[in-house]
Write a structure and sequence with these properties.
Blueprint lengths: L1 H61 L6 H16 L3 H22 L3 H4 L2 H36 L3 H8 L25
Helix pairs in contact: 1-2, 1-3, 1-5, 1-6, 2-3
Length: 190
Amino acid sequence: MKQATGIIIVLVVIVLLLGGWLGVTCNSLIAKDEEASKAWADTDAQLQRRNDLIPNLVSTVKGYAAHEEDVFSGIAEARSKLAGAQTPNEKAEADAVLSSGLSRLLAIAENYPELKANENFIRLQDELAGTENRITVARTRYNDAVKRYNTSIRQIPGSFLAGSLGLTAREYFEPPKGHDAVADAPKVEF
């Protein structure tokens, strides 16, 4: 009788330990998934902030460089692509095209000294530079969170539990490389 009670107590302790371990592991995986979701939301918010600044910047430059319509329409198209992008890869591709267009827009501004001295343009350019920095920080934080999450669902014990929790690997937010990065960028000719 004493031996049976001892075995039952040992089994109960083992079941409780396994249950606790399972709970801690599941909670850790879910927390890392939520961390990655929050980091993505922060990145997306910064991309949207920049997207919202661009029309003001474009309209300021338009007043000085009205003949550069192809650049303005290219930026408008790139903004639409970014707004419609859903996944990190789609956002990264659209972001690369938009960044290229913005670089060309700012290069155009260099040809107009009175535009470069315009207070509104200077303020918008400063806001855009600050937003670019925020995007870089947010993208880094997102990719770090994705790395922690992806690592934990690929390693033991997470790999045993991830599928049953519906957790799958997340995409990193990386700009495309090479020719594809600027294939659809607006062209500027001087």
